[in-house]
Amino acid sequence: MKKILDRLSEIVGEAFAAAGYDAAYGRVTVSNRPDLCEFQCNGAMAGAKAFHKAPMAIASDVVKKLTETLDGVWREAAAVPPGFINLKLREDFLAEYTGKMDSDEKLGCPCPASPRTILVDYGGPNVAKPLHIGHLRSAIIGESIKRICRFMGNRVIGDVHLGDWGLQMGQIMQELKERQPDLPYFDPEYTGEYPKEAPFTIGELEEIYPAASAKSKEDETFDRLAHDMTLRYQEGDRGLAALGRRIVAVSLPDLKKNYQNLNVDFDVWYSESDARRYIPVTVERMKADGLAYESQGALVVDVAKEGDTKEVPPCILVKSDGATLYSTTDLATLVWRMEEFAPDAVIYLADKRQEMHFTQVFRCSRLAGLVGENVDLTYIGFGTMNGKDGKPFKTRSGGVMRLEYLIREIEEAVCRRITENENRSMTEEEAKQTASIIGLAALKYGDLSNQAAKDYVFDIERFTSFEGNTGPYILYTIVRIKSILEKYEKTQETAENAAIRPAASGSEKQLQLCLAQFGEAVDGAYQELAPHKICQYVYELSNAFNQFYHETKILAEPDKTKRQGYIRLITLTKKVLETGIDLLGFAAPQRM
Ligand code: ARG
């Protein structure tokens, strides 16, 4: 099924051709003057030069064709100075379109003809460190992008890319060695099997890391030992590799639980250290091409380009002490991903402060031909989530906010709102469950409705409000439809074989027009990898529905055909809204 604008462009294009112009000028867009028309075409102005004709003359010719030959489509088609073509659809045409959407699996959003394999690298937590809100955005935005790409028919792989390679590993290991020197992991003579059980719990691990990291800053000797430890771990020391696996194993259940609470799930749970076996080949390829050279004992690749507006330092592959870095594992991971998944595109989600890192890694991999020329490498750098003071969000006591606490705070705020409601029929248990569903929507929508690159202010009051451009408002709209449909069901009538009817009022037409643009919205979000476009769309659709709802007696409509038509219309609205929020990564409760 064609998207509405494509269908209309085709029709207007035919009119251009019939009037002796080029059909390509018939591109139709949504009107930017909704007070005047629903759609518009600016092709007459664009074509004036090519046809040596006044835009108005072209527009009039086309409008004549539009009204003569294709009068089943337009309620109004007018040429307006200096050469716009203003368009309004016929209600029956629109009802037919939305009716088709209703039976279309993708709700009128066609998938590209050749699906691609897309790997989305998001989440990116570091083992042994609790998930904090810095990782929240990566998870939320990445999950939505993954779902959008998948909805468009692509084969999509979500990879969490756990951080378990850097200095933090050596710090933890060194601290552990000082606390429990007798562990076999530290004994170079040890040849037996290492214990299956980790020598620490997640609680201890979370305490060990900050202690070790603080020590590294204060104590030079400790810091040096931690660096040595990191190096030996990276070099594949048998005991330390086993210990590294224990650290990952202890961290994983906790991470998985956290992501599950966020409704975020990964297809593969690979980590940086899993790429270690690809490091030697990656480095060799760089060296063989003469790209990598030694500089002050380190192995580096120049990636600066002519025309760079800011300095792009060389990409360091191996430090002078022999340790490899974040860039090294990212390059090795790419080599491995090409081998395992052969992706057409790799999309990375990380804090926008990592922009330089990704510039270096992408340039390096292009120079060395680690990925084919047709493979897209995209980095989506997101801004910071700030508190009301405009600074990165902190706990009340000023510490880094842990994700769990943040979620709890949101849920409590929502729970207060629900129980304050006059609607007290909800049991405490149901209120809690509902609050967690709404809380997640508040959190995710609050984040996704901003352009990813921008910083935003985390405002619990605003995010959890049931009114305005918020997640709970969208859910509220869906719940409202659910409740009408529930009541309708009780009447024993069914609208199953009914059809959406030509709109009889302005608000009904507006609702249908908005529904018809679902495909445009999703496709736009996909092309630009921009979930905020879906937020915009579901917000507009919710507004259109609520306007219609306030002006229309749905269940009390005496004419049966009309009543059934309404039911079909709002059922489609519910489907489209639910699909929209599923692409954003949350769902609606039964009531609220
Ligand atoms: N672990 C990193 C961090 O905490 C994010 C990883 C992003 N992905 C990547 N392939 N570099 O900042």
Question: What report would you give on this structure?
Answer:
- The protein has 592 residues and is of the alpha/beta class.
- The chain is 52% helix and 10% strand.
- A four-stranded antiparallel sheet has the order 1-2-4-3. A four-stranded parallel sheet has the order 6-5-10-11, with helices on both faces. The protein has a three-stranded antiparallel sheet with strand order 7-8-9.
- Helix 16 crosses helix 19.
- The longest helix has 25 residues.
Notable characteristics:
592 residues, alpha/beta, 4-stranded parallel beta sheet, 20 helices, 52% helix, globular, binds arginine
Output mean pLDDT.
94
Head-to-tail CA distance between termini: 35 Å
The major β-sheet equals: 4 strands, antiparallel
Q: By helix and strand content, what is the structural category?
A: alpha/beta
Helix content: 40-55%
Summarize this entry quickly:
The protein has 592 residues and is an alpha/beta fold.
Topology:
Blueprint: H1 4-18, E1 28-30, E2 39-41, H2 43-51, H3 55-69, E3 74-80, E4 84-89, H4 91-103, E5 117-121, H5 133-151, E6 155-159, H6 167-179, H7 202-218, H8 220-235, H9 238-261, H10 279-288, E7 292-295, E8 298-301, E9 315-318, H11 326-341, E10 345-351, H12 355-367, E11 376-382, E12 385-386, H13 403-420, H14 428-448, E13 456-457, H15 460-463, H16 471-490, H17 506-516, H18 518-528, H19 532-551, H20 560-584
Parallel strand pairs: 5-6, 5-10, 10-11, 12-13
Antiparallel strand pairs: 1-2, 2-4, 3-4, 7-8, 8-9
Helix pairs in contact: 1-3, 2-3, 4-17, 6-7, 6-8, 7-8, 8-9, 10-11, 11-12, 13-14, 16-19, 16-20, 17-19, 18-19, 19-20
